[in-house]
Amino acid sequence: MKTLILNEKEKNSTEICANIIRNGGLCAFPTETVYGLGANGLCAEAVKKIFTAKGRPQDNPLILHVASFSQAQELWRDVPCTAKQLADVFWGGALTIICKKSTVVPDVVCAGLDTVAVRMPENECARRLIQLAGVPIAAPSANLSGKPSPTKAEHVIADMEGRVDAILCGEDCKYGIESTVISLAGTPTILRPGAVTPEMISAVIGEVCISESVLSPLKDGETAASPGMKYKHYAPDAKVIAASGTQFEIAQKLCRLYDEYSKSSRCVILASTENSAIYGERAHFVIGSRNNPYTLCAGLFAALRKFNDFDIILCETTDTQNAGLAYMNRLLRASGFCVV
Ligand code: TXA
Ligand code: MG
Fold it and tell me: What is the reported pTM?
């Protein structure tokens, strides 16, 4: 398939992409979290193409992207008042809300569940695309299944050229990790942490549960509240190893691991600004600051892709307060829970 590569700044590029989506095609587009791979969310045939293009398991449901809360209401039923409270504060933005689905949503979007995930992005280009398409846009992250989510247009081109009708290129994604996913279908529960933190959500709707799968692997025979959590995720080809402890212990452990592994393999340390000097001459790449976990989130996926062809990528863990929870969720999955 020939893929049209357009820049959001070019005249009519968003209109062309909206047309493609309206006509049942696939188009990747920027959001503030990660790039999405969009199709008409109300058309089962169009949505099926997403699973093929990504190589995504059919039992992993998609998020529908909308341009207003009233558009979301048409996709849900039995909507609790907490949905409106959260949307009022966090939409457009990095929060995906799950409620019971209405009959307009095709089963293939929800992988047969009776709930549907909906999000209104903050990114202007994404919002315009949804408005012009005139339908909710079903969109997972625009990476090949299992790979780190794309945070730059070049990542999308690398994974999706030849597999989709168009790629709408925009700026690098502000947050660099996927949205927070909260289920309101029962007790409010965070299924995937993101830039909208549990602390921020609790301040609006009171106490919120955090799914066990956020920081631990699924046990044998356990069913995932969020099917996405059971798959190998965010993983580069390189082996990822994370070090735990205090800030200084982490740096010491990574130096030791590096000195040992680099004798026989290609290694790199994904460093914090704070620890960077300690790594000295060892190959390291600064992804962000331990004092601001948002910066670690924003740098992680791009760095995993950058060093994909290395043998070993050594990473720093952080505490799980605020956006640190989202960083640790992605890091633990990228490393297959390999923490020393
Ligand atoms: O930031 C984002 O959310 C990006 C951008 C493109 O918007 N999208 C994204 O989609 O990350 P995806 O498909 O990569 O992740 C969707 C996650 C998966 O873990 C999936 O299992 C979960 O949301 N999910 C979707 N619908 C669900 C449902 N009805 N119940 C439980 N989990 C659901
Ligand atoms: Mg994804």
Answer: 0.96
